[in-house]
Amino acid sequence: MDSDLLWLILAILVGAFCAGNLNRLRQQRKKKLNSLPPGDMGWPLIGCWGNRLDFSSHKFNIGNIWSFLRAFKSQNPESFIDNFKQRYGPAGIYRTNLFWKPSIIVCTPELYRKVLTDDDQFQLGRIEEIVIDAFEEWSEMKRRILFFPEVNKISFKVMMTIFLGSWTDNTVIASMEKYYTYVFAGLFCTPINVPGFAYNRAVKAREMLVKGIQGVLRERKQNGPNSRRGLVDFIREAEDENGEKLDDERVAIILLMFLITGRESSGRTAAWATVYLHDHPQVLQMAKEEQEEIIKRRPSSQKGLTLNEIKQMKYLSKVINETLRIRTNIFTLFREARKDSYLDGYFIPKGWKVLVWQSAVHMDPEIYSNPKQFLPSRWDDFIPKGGAFLPFGAGTRSCIGADLAKLEISIFLHYFILNYRLEQLNPGGPVNYLPSSPDPADNCPAKVIKIP
């Protein structure tokens, strides 16, 4: 047989094999795409198709960001998810393009848990001192304060004290809090590192914050150990498997992460719980009676709270849970598919974001009747099914400071309920749900009045 003919036959066979494989791959790809969850990819920029399911097309896709912003700038952020439910049914899992990334939104307890879980030595005295001093200062002002920012200042100082021990230079703490505020704001903005933009200000503030913390650490080394050790001392003494210790820059970064997870959850929740209690006098009275009973049982020689007493605050714990449910600190938890996978029978392409939409679960009327009402009593003998109440996340990415946050909130509410009342200027005012978490649009101007 002619050699040219042999090469022609071989080329035809190879071509047929490749074409068959290519067709098979196309069919597999088409099958996977048809297995994506229901939803849409939103609006495209010029020259791109918004509903196109090419995995690379998202780079130029506005997606559903406008409908997201519209919902979260209204007083009904749940409308964003409700729209998906109305259009695509109660699947509890939807595809979209959000924050310029193809994403899967998860909003049922079962899927929530699956996504997230694939992966008496404590001194209370210093925390109590910080809280009590702040309350006294507020009440003596005889004027309104911006309640939410002031509570956040308390939380920041508590976090710094826990981390650094007895070191409490108020001037330096105030400076660090300013830088921290810029850093936190930068987490939720477009990463444009150009002067004048929030992200650029956050980058510079992070550098200043790390330098400030490093300066404190150097001072501690020079002056020797403090009278009361902090978390930083244990971190600096820890060694890895090679016997090496963390340098000051890494310790400073750990502190920054500690502040982000602790300050936001405890400060915001304590402030909202205080507002809800004063908006619901009967609930406030029940919480106050519980705290008074704890004081009555206390030995006359005891000064201050104990962990055992905090464990006795059963009703207050329900108040905190209900506050965390309604005012979830973040609207979603971000995950990413490391490989092509399936979730509840739907195809999830590698690299797509998976957004665990906490508020959709926490405000689901099938789980919590009258979800928009503040009802601590709903927690009487109520144990939510797995994934239905996870305000601090779950699995390996759960908030490591959850117990500390609840401890701080309990101390704050204990002293405020017993000794002070909140007089709001604009009760029931509008709420900002962006950039990160729900806050009163006016930061809650109010007077703190000491109870005679």
UniProtKB/TrEMBL annotation:
Annotated TM spans: 6-23, 179-199
Pfam families per UniProt: p450
InterPro entries documented for this protein: Cyt_P450, Cyt_P450_CS, Cyt_P450_E_grp-I, Cyt_P450_sf
Keyword set, alphabetical order: Heme, Iron, Membrane, Metal-binding, Monooxygenase, Oxidoreductase, Transmembrane, Transmembrane helix
Reported cofactor(s): heme
Localization: Membrane
One Gene Ontology MF term: iron ion binding
Membrane protein topology class: Single-pass membrane protein
Biological process terms in GO annotation: brassinosteroid biosynthetic process; brassinosteroid homeostasis; sterol metabolic process
Superkingdom per UniProt: Eukaryota
GO terms under cellular component: endoplasmic reticulum; membrane
Record: residues binding heme: C399
UniProt family annotation: Belongs to the cytochrome P450 family.
Protein name: ARABIDOPSIS ENT-KAURENOIC ACID HYDROXYLASE 2, ent-kaurenoic acid hydroxylase 2
Protein species of origin: Hibiscus trionum (Flower of an hour)
